[in-house]
Task: structure prediction
Amino acid sequence: MSSSFLLYLLRRALWTVPTLLLVAVLVFVLMRLIPGDPAQLILGDAGTAEQLADLRAQFGLDKPILVQFGLWLSHMASGDFGHSLSSGEAVLPLLLERFQVSAAIVLVAVGAATLLAVPAGLFAAWKQNSLTDTVIVAGATFFLSIPSFWLGLLLLLFVGLKLGWVPVVGYVTFSQDWRAAASYLVLPVITLTLIEMGVLTRMARSSAIETLRLEYVTHARAKGLSELRVLLRHVLPNAFAPTWTLIGLVLGNLLGGIAVLETVFTLPGLGRLLVDAIFARDYPVVQGCLLFTAGIYVLVNLVVDLFYPLFDPRVATS
Amino acid sequence: MKLRTNALIGGLLVATVTAMALLSVIWTPYNPLRLNLRMRLKPPGNLHWLGTDEFGRDILSRLLAGAGASLLVAALTVLVALLLGTLLGLIAGYFRGRIDRVMMVFNDALLAFPGILLALGIMVVTGANKYGIVLALGLAYTPTVVRLVRGTVLSLREKEYVEASRVIGNSELVTMLRHILPNCAAPLMVLGTSMFGWVVLAESALSFLGLGVPPPAPTWGNMLSSGRPYIESAAWLGIAPGVCIALTLLGINLLGDALRDWLDPRMEPR
Amino acid sequence: MNSRMNARMPAVPQSPPAGQGAPLLSVRGLTLRSAAGTPILNGISFDIAQGEVLALVGESGSGKTMAGRAVMRLLPSQVRQTGGTITLAGHDVATLPDRGMRSLRGQVAGMVFQEPMVSLNPAMTVGAQLCEGLMLHEKIPAQAARERAVAMLARVQIADPEGCMASYPHVFSGGMRQRIMLACVMLLKPRLLIADEPTTALDALSQREVMQIMADLTRTSGTAVLLVTHDLQLVAHYADSVLVLKRGDQVESGRAGEVLRNPREAYTRSLIAALPRRDDSRPAVADAPPVIEARNVAVAYPGAHRLFSRQADKLAVDGVSLAIRPGEVVAVVGGSGSGKTTLGRALIGLLPLAGGEIRFRGQPVGSGGRQDRRDFRLACQMVFQDPYSSLDPRQRIGDIVAEPLNHGEPLTRAQRRARVDAMLAEVGLDGLGERYPHALSGGQRQRVAIARALIRRPALVVADEPVSALDMTIQKQVLTLFRQLQAQHGFACFFVSHNLAAVSEVADRIVVMHQGRIVEQGSVADIFDRPQHDYTRALLEAAYVAPGQRAPLSVAEDGAGSLALGAAAS
Result:
């Protein structure tokens, strides 16, 4: 572990702090832009005049805006995200609970998609311009052009309703009954996997094509290495780097976009929580979702960047 | 060869959708908003080629009108994002130093909001309507454009013809406008095409969730959403709008591919 | 991890019995075409005997690189062999099955590539790459492979072989990477080494080092060499025989010394004529106050201020004083990192000074008002190195050349047109005003760059390696044009080059720079005949110029090229 690499890790990790801070600022500003008295928005219609006054004092609504931000930030940082207006539950535990559902779907789907897409992309690049390549690219383009909610709907219709292979509505946690839980997640995971495969295959293919043109691949062949070894040891690690970055972006996108799939399959995930909260004007939950999701995304990006030197050692020594 | 096929199919699809949108402005088979409760949930047939929805409205007409809505929102959004993003990206790349650093920290923070989350957040403030969506999605995609433009500007600055422009006596500003900006056009075109597709998808997703253009105005997204309860009994409600979205996206993606391939060898002089 | 993949590598297939004198490589009528049908090679033939060094010489587009690749059946997918035979160690390369070909590669024939920056896998350690081929072909255990790799790295003069094995390629300079490549290939003890422009992308000093290491290694192991190059100096000093290619056609072949001393074909003669020739007939420069003067100038490296940097700021240019008189051509030479390019840019105000001052016509730059600064800017122009990036791809040639006219006295449209046309005619590009850069060749683009620099009749032109990126015969043309224009218009010139021999044709005075300082300066005769500083001598050696030598090529009298180390020096 060279010192420049450690420096890179440190610098990258430290960079998340100002980013997170700014994210908090943005959420704070966004929430304050909503017309209406902040205290009223938090308590909803049920607040008494006393509670309102109380809350106002608590958030220092009569103090300068920076102080308000400070107070707000201290609440968030200590884990006090407030309480949902609709259900009265504490927001943070609610978020965590819902997050597990979304995360389960997203992680499994993206993982499966990667495992399928990378070999497919590599193979297509190796056989560039052949029929196989054209078929793979056409398939990938096809899948990434389908809106996820529509594909989900179709699968729901044919596999769930017409064929009855999996249940269409409902959810149980893994701890209760893992078989049932899995069956509820099968369709959304498959839907997502198919679509993300489209995106990832194309990226894997194009970066593999770029890499195959580079001289060190010819050099590897000139050493007498078999094509398989050339592909796995020389092409793949180098071609994978852009796909790895894309995985980070995809994961992030899905943190927001999963809402539609959760709506189609009526799953109690984070996305649906946000959408319901927006409809219900449940501002503490909206705020919590925004903050939480953005925070998770910053962490995801951090992890992606930290692993990047594994595929491209040049990055760590700049 | 592949370029030709992509461009052809993609162009055809996009042209069809655009034609649908334009047509809907002057004529549709039926009034998309007109209710006809006696003809509810009719399957595709002679009178209504694609059937009717739960309020008896003609689906084909609604699809045509929806095309118009989707394309308009997407076009406006891409315009907003490209204009704003290019301006900010140019400033960041031109001034560099402290201004650039501050702008990039803000940009990264904005980019920390995944996908449509930022748009959702902004829509909480603006409310759900056509202009709210354009503003929300436009702002949500601006950071991506900023990043691209800034990156392009920074790499173009290293080109010798930019240095040469300074040497022959042009000021920094003239150099930026005459030599750097036009050479950003190519990557911007590619990004713009991709973004158009993302926006169509995002807008339909938002409409599907009920946060987009509110009914009764038809968009493909909210048509899908209202067709959901009837998925078993009247499947055509859910299939038609989805096909439209998918074909539009396919067309845009293919065109984008063709564009990228066309620009690529040309930019390489050797 | 990879024992399964290594297991089935077959032994080198049995060579069919051959006569004692059978050549190691025999190529007959080799014809290559691209997938689109354009011809790349038109039936070339040559033999390489065991231990012989054959140079394949040509400019870009000659097909020489593809010839090298065809021998190992490593042609890119768009190039096909449509005729001829290649017989390597008795095997017919075209009909050999994949397995057989793979066992030939590396063990019988090895290849070294041109660009050291991309020829090593950036994601694998050097050690892994070195041992990979070794373990594959010879099936020795990892430890034994490591030891041999370390020994070979020491032989190619890598300072810390153990450390090198564990590092990634990107931490090494170009010269070191080429040596690592060489080590990697020679480790397998091939009978034939195909070297594709092995030193072209390197610094002048590294070039000579790497060539000598290569010559040494191949000589002691009796390896034959197919040297693909455009550099006739390499042919003169290292090759036994030579084959000259032009646009895929075989123009001339024979013993290297013979061909170079008595070329039969016109093309070969033009290649030899393209070598820089010392010009002692330049008129003396009139003694006049200098046009531009640098006094104790210092320039820092760009981006030198790092967050955690603790070392003192190294200076790219450190305390340099230089004066250029009107009409004088001062050539500045040095290796990479010498500061010559930085100094050139600082002279015309493109880079900020960290110390010292620049005086233009006696006045310190920046002291005058706006008008003075403007005059300075317009009177000092620059010709850049890379013809492919110094012209805006979106502008027409005519507009590129006309742009400098926007400043200064306003001209009518007709006047502008006239001046642009006249300038284009001067550089031999009349009628091309409406074209775009991508339609022009490298040489033509450099002419445009020169036209752009000269259209306002500047007092000083900084030429930053203006011909380095061009083919040899084109270099000669453009350089001749430049000399002509300089004699005609009489501008002063700061001519940057990494090749000492190349400037002997244009320079009035030569300045040698090393690590930001001037180590020696003098007239061409002073530098070439009486070099004082060690670095100057090293540069001369790297250019294959012996002190006192007049002819561009020094070929040994007996006509044989020489692989012996240092035969051309001292």
Observations:
- The interface with chain B takes residues 348, 350, 374, 377-378, 380-382, 384-386, 388-394, 403-404, 406-407, 437-438, 449, 452 of chain C (CB under 8 Å).
- The radius of gyration of chain C is 26 Å.
